[in-house]
Structure formats: structure tokens, C-alpha cells
């Protein structure tokens, strides 16, 4: 499966997507790559209530785009994942991205890379962001490589400085990658 054979685009999510996105995040085939033991004992699998508290209505309604938004990742009009940004960071000019696919079958083909590039363009060119950050675990080297392919670059920053600049991360071994409007 090559991206040249498929059309990838983003579509704003709606409230009805919240449960579907949660189900994908906690799907037994994807969890080993993202959350929980044995590889991620420091990143608990969220309950529905915890997920809903993190992903408030505005992520799905677009009512507060300065704070964040979720998008469906569509491949040939089929929803294959979700990507989002949050801007509740110390600076309103910085947004943090997060992405997960609906199934392992959509991983490793470049669809996520393309979705990240599309959302990065929206944030940097249309929404006035100056810097984007994404923080996977070092235990997820495929994700790190994908973000680098999307144009993000690793920065050397200690955990405390990263927390001041970007808020707390999800993992004890966050790899901080950034994409700046003006490098």
C-alpha cells in the first residue's frame, strides 16, 4: 500500500466520534504500542471517564479552536485514525499533536506521516502557531521515525525544562520533537 495509491485528508471530528476514538486508543491490538504494561507501565490505559475529561467537547465541536481540535484521518473516504492538537500549553503559539490509527493495518504505510504534515500546515499557516511539539516514548521507535519523516526534529531538553515549555509529558522517556514555523 503506497500513499500514491490513496488519498489522505483530514475532516473535523464531531461529538459522536469521541467514543470511537477512545475505542481505537484502547483497542487490544494497538495498546501494546501506546499504553499500559508490559512496555508502558508508566502510562495507564485511560478509562472512558478519564479520556472524556481530557478530550472535552470543544475537541469535537470546534467551539474553542485556540485550545484544541480532533480530526478524522480519511483514506479514500474511510476513517482510519484520528489526529488532534492541544494548545493549553504555557504559550498559545505552541500546539502539541497526538495521533493514533484505528487498527494496526493502517500503521507503517505513511498515512500518519501525511496526516501530521497536513495538520502541521493548518496549524502553522492558518492558525498562527509558531511551534508544534509531539512527545512519543523512546520505547516507540516507529513513532519517533514517523514524526521525523513528517519534518519534526528531536531537541535535547531535560524533563523539567520540557514540562515548563510544553507541560507534563505522558512517559518518563519522552522524546521531544518539534517543528517550528521559522527554524
From TrEMBL:
Q: By its UniProt entry, which PROSITE patterns does this protein fall under?
A: GNAT
One Pfam family name from the record?
Acetyltransf_3
The answer to whether keyword Aminoacyl-tRNA synthetase applies is no
GO molecular function annotations of the record: acyltransferase activity, transferring groups other than amino-acyl groups
Q: Which domain of life is it from?
A: Bacteria
Q: What keywords are annotated for this sequence in UniProt?
A: Transferase
Q: Does the keyword rRNA processing apply?
A: no
| Segments forming domain N-acetyltransferase | 8-173
Q: What is this protein called?
A: N-acetyltransferase
Organism, scientific name: Leptospira yasudae
Q: What is the lineage of its organism?
A: Bacteria, Pseudomonadati, Spirochaetota, Spirochaetia, Leptospirales
Amino acid at each position: 500500500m503506497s500513499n500514491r495509491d490513496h488519498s489522505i485528508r483530514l475532516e473535523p471530528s464531531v461529538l459522536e466520534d469521541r467514543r470511537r476514538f477512545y475505542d481505537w486508543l484502547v483497542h487490544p491490538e494497538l495498546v501494546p504500542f501506546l499504553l499500559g504494561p508490559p512496555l508502558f507501565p508508566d502510562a495507564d490505559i485511560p478509562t472512558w471517564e478519564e479520556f472524556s475529561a481530557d478530550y472535552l467537547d470543544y475537541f469535537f465541536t470546534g467551539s474553542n479552536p485556540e485550545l484544541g481540535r480532533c480530526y478524522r484521518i480519511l483514506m479514500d473516504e474511510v476513517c482510519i485514525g484520528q489526529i488532534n492538537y492541544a494548545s493549553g500549553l504555557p504559550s498559545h503559539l505552541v500546539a502539541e499533536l497526538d495521533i493514533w490509527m484505528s487498527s494496526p493495518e493502517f500503521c507503517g504505510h505513511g498515512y500518519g506521516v501525511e496526516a501530521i504534515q497536513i495538520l502541521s500546515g493548518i496549524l502553522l499557516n492558518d492558525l498562527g502557531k509558531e511551534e508544534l511539539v509531539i512527545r512519543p516514548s523512546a520505547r516507540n521507535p516507529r513513532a519517533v521515525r514517523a514524526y521525523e519523516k513528517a519534518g519534526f526534529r528531536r531537541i535535547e531538553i531535560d524533563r523539567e525544562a520540557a514540562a515548563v515549555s510544553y507541560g507534563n509529558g505522558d512517559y518518563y522517556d519522552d522524546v521531544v520533537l518539534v517543528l517550528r514555523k521559522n527554524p
